[in-house]
Design a protein that fits this description.
The chain has 178 residues and is of the alpha/beta class. It is built from six helices and seven strands.
Length: 178
């Protein structure tokens, strides 16, 4: 069973996903998408790392998420993907800012690969992502495309996942249950 876990910044969504994994009784693998591009991001990554059990293997997948999931997924495994919005940022970072420019080919291919691959994967997968569509329309093409594509990805994954949970203030709200 796969679950999409959405929430805002510091909502508790990662902690919720990790608790689900720990309580599952399955072997847990973390698939992380962040890249430490600066000292502040490196510190964030380290804080996340420090809260997880040391025996959980970590797979870094800043770009090729579907391939990493195919390799890690197993019937007796719980995978936590943290997080989809950082993955989207990585894929969109080299986008042409010109009005009407197409989306980067890597983004198009990797998004399609994730949506096509997810339903075939065994075991449990928790996909953590930031809900970014509740605010104002952002300034700048890259920001607007990011918000639009995050929303489209969340809708596609919500259709595929048996469970969808929104976490706010550390409290999970079931949006979809089997």
């Amino acid at each position: 069973m796969h679950e999409l876990i959405l929430g805002g910044a510091r909502s508790g969504k990662s902690a919720y996903a990790e608790a689900q994994a720990a309580e599952s009784g399955l072997a847990v693998t973390m698939v992380v998408t962040a890249q430490a591009g600066d000292g502040e991001m490196a510190a964030r990554i380290e804080r996340h790392r420090a809260t997880r059990p040391a025996h959980w293997p970590v797979v870094e997948a800043p770009l090729h998420l579907a391939a990493a999931l195919r390799e890690a997924a197993a019937e007796d495994c719980f995978i936590v993907v943290d997080c989809l919005t950082l993955w989207l940022s990585n894929l969109l970072m080299d986008m042409d800012d010109a009005p009407g420019a197409p989306l980067p080919g890597l983004f198009v291919r990797e998004r399609a690969a994730l949506v096509d691959t997810l339903p075939m994967l065994p075991g449990r997968i928790a996909l953590v992502s930031n809900e970014v569509g509740s605010g104002v329309v952002p300034m700048g093409r890259l920001s607007r495309v990011f918000v639009d594509e995050a929303g489209r990805l969340h809708q596609a994954l919500a259709r595929l996942c048996a469970r969808v949970t929104l976490v706010t203030a550390g409290l999970p709200l079931a949006l979809k249950r089997p």
